[in-house]
Amino acid sequence: ALEKRHKFWETQPVGQFKDLGATNLPEGPIEPATPISDVKQEPYNLPNLYEWVTCDMNSEEVCNEVYVLLTNNYVEDDENMFRFNYSKEFLHWALHPPGYFRSWHIGVRVKSSKKLVAFITGIPARIRVRDEVVNMAEINFLCVHKKLRSKRLAPVMIKEVTRRVHLENIWQAGYTAGVILPTPISTCQYWHRSLNPKKLIDVGFSRLGARMTMSRTIKLYKLPESTVTPGFRKMELHDIPAVTRLLRNYLSQFIVAPDFDENDVEHWLLPKENVIDSYLVEGPETQEITDFCSFYTLPSSILGNQNYSTLKAAYSYYNVSTKTPLLQLMNDALIVAKRKDYDVFNALDVMQNECFLKELKFGPGDGKLHYYLYNYRIRHALNPSELGLVLL
Ligand SMILES: CCCCCCCCCCCCCC(=O)CSCCNC(=O)CCNC(=O)[C@H](O)C(C)(C)COP(=O)(O)OP(=O)(O)OC[C@H]1O[C@@H](n2cnc3c(N)ncnc32)[C@H](O)[C@@H]1OP(=O)(O)O
Ligand SMILES: CN(C)Cc1n[nH]c2ccc(-c3ccc(F)cc3OCCn3ccnc3)cc12
Questions:
Q1: What ipTM is given for this predicted complex?
Q2: For residues 214 and 329, what is the distance between their CA atoms, to the nearest angstrom?
């Protein structure tokens, strides 16, 4: 990463690789906020053929155009065998949290054909860094059509979303990526737990272990039909206050974590079919909520396989254990995911996930996920276990 020139990122208020050794730089904002009147009022220039469009994700038609762009042009694994296939319901959920700004859902169209060829989004989020709660934008879904790659469109998209975020008097952002950019605040490993090993091997996601037969592999990953924890049930509307208390308390131990209130918990954690699943453990006598686990649904398209077109994947989201061992709680999450026909359960090594990954038969993924803050310096990179933030 040191010899690589980052012509765009070297111009941005982010930790720079050249500053890696320096320990005298203060933690916190890199550039000060400016008066809104000093923010560039008009959009950045796009190449002539293209125009900006604000995407109303409440419009079925626009949401579908975004869905089609991402389905064909969004993130692939390193071997280009799979591509994220976020559903329309998922995109609607991901982009409409409390206080969202439609102006932060930014598209680029071809002027003549009106075809959507690029996209980038921001959503507002209160993120605590140590004991500072910072109003940030979470940036996601940056996508340039495969035919328009390597034309330096991404820097323009990034500058435009930055400008629109600044207009709302927000000066920091958080984002994650599979690529190394100046400069990660933490680098996490992702892990996969097979639920449908036969399909995973058929599509090339997994390989049959040495000295393993298919039937031995199926038996290795077998799970019980029903969950084992007494009082384990789906989260419901009336659980929001208790889940908020439980989650806020749990997340307070991490250096970087969302500062969720009840409105945020209602949006991000109340179950939504095929989008977000949340379960909790309610004590028998006291009705006290002692534990919580959640996962989101993000399928991947399987590129070039005759028998299957989609991998149904669950991604570990926020989990809290105060009474039920995290190992047992997450095993119940696996049991639920298997029963709901997921092929694989994914998790990052963030928070306390390290403690269950190996024991629950997760295998390491083939890449890393890097976490970034924009215009906010962290003196030392964090261990994944110091991160309490999961981005979609
Ligand atoms: C205060 C508010 C602040 C808000 C903004 C905060 C910052 C938000 C930042 C965004 C966070 C997004 C988070 C997110 O969405 C989750 S990460 C997923 C990103 N999307 C994909 O991987 C989809 C498939 N790939 C593409 O669509 C294109 O390859 C993209 C569009 C990725 C790059 O298009 P391209 O045609 O391949 O490339 P050029 O246009 O020629 O541009 C090359 C320049 O772009 C830099 N680049 C490449 N990938 C990047 C990435 N993932 N983040 C940031 N920068 C990235 C690259 O280093 C180079 O700059 P450098 O020369 O300096 O090295
Ligand atoms: C987080 N969010 C910003 C999407 C995103 N962008 N870039 C990424 C790179 C890796 C992961 C990731 C995160 C957790 C995980 F268990 C597996 C992952 O990727 C596997 C490789 N892969 C990529 C596409 N299909 C399969 C997500 C992302």
A1: 0.99
A2: 28
